Amino acid sequence: MIKSRLKNKKKTQAKNNDTALRKLSATELGKIVKTKKEELNRIIQKKHLLEKKLEEKKDELEAFSKEYTELKNKIELISKGCEEYDEKVDQEKKTIKNKSIFYNFQNADQLKKLENENENLMILINEKHEETMDNLLSYIEEERIHLDYVKNQNFNEINELKTSFDMKIKAIEEIFKKHLEEYDNEQKYELEEIIDNYSIMEKNEIIYLKNLYNDHIKDMNEIYMNMINDYKKYYFNKIRENISKIKLLKNQINELEVNDKEAKSGINIHNTENLSMLEKIKTLEGNREILNKALKFYSKDFVMYKNLELIYNENNVYIKNLKGFSQNFKEKILQVEEAFKDLTTNENDNFDDYFENIKNKNTDLKNKVKSLNLDLESLDKELNLYIKEKGIKQEDVITVRKGIDFCIRAYNKEFNNLLYAERKIKKKLKDSANIYEKKLKDINIKKEN
Q1: 285 in Cβ contact with 313 (< 8 Å)
Q2: Rg (Cα) of the chain, in Å, rounded?
Q3: Is 366 left (phi over 0), alpha (psi -120 to 50) or beta?
Q4: Which tens digit of pLDDT belongs to each residue from 55-71?
């Protein structure tokens, strides 16, 4: 009954806490979570302190056991010394007996003389030996009694220390168990509340992020589709305009080629006429020199000389007219060249402005995408968690990613095709200008810079 009541109390408290947490804002929830984390850290620190104290007590026990072993080793050394001393006394007795026998055999005569003295001396020696042995034995017994007393005292102290240490350890263990039980009883409910709050917050955040992601994808798709449609319309219109301009340029180039052919044929005719006139002038000058020489000798031919001068003057007028005609023709060719230059420069300016506008639009779009300020790594992690939780198939995820990649590739292809068209048109204009310059060089007309 008590357990059921406690559970009901916990459930009611959890419900009240859930309602209170739902009413709270994100900042307040963050503060509550921080306080709970700080409390948990404090409890963990207390636990670590208790563990450290236990380790210190264990270290003290180990030190005490080491001291006990050292005392035990000392007692064993003293007992060994006593045994060695007994062995030395027995050896001395044996050596004395051996020496006495040896001296008896060596000095039989002296022994006979000194038997009485030896007997007296032996009596004295035996008495002294007995006294010394009695003293030694009494001293050894006293030392043994003292050592036994010390041993018993040490054993009693060790037993007392062991019992006191065991009592202390038991008391510490009982206190630690009590603290742990109290801590577990206190923290179970708090941990359950924290876990429930975290689960609710995670669910709300996942739903919020899912909605944000869906809205963002919708907005991006709308923007992308509108952008693609606008680009398509714009590109189709500009391509049509460019095709019409190219046709006009081709017609103008054909007209220029026809005019070039006519001008070339006229120049060839005038060149042939000039050559024939020059040959005639040379012949006339030769005749004039001959006539001048002849006039020195013949005055009758003066009239003929005047006639020849008139013919020569007429020829000079004709040559002047030809020079004027050639100058006018050169001026016309220069006008055609300037018109062609203006045409090419205007077309190049229009094309450059057109393609620069497209590039500027592309950069503006990239800047807009950069200015969104989205943390893509966190979004990617949250999406992967959401996909795992909801059990979305990898095939669906792959199809969506393929669609996005296809749209991006299509946009990049269209932009690259535009750049290729720009290069091609500029190349055609340069080729047409080079062809026109070659034709002018064939006509022997220098291009003015």
Answers
A1: no
A2: 64
A3: alpha
A4: 777 777 777 667 767 76
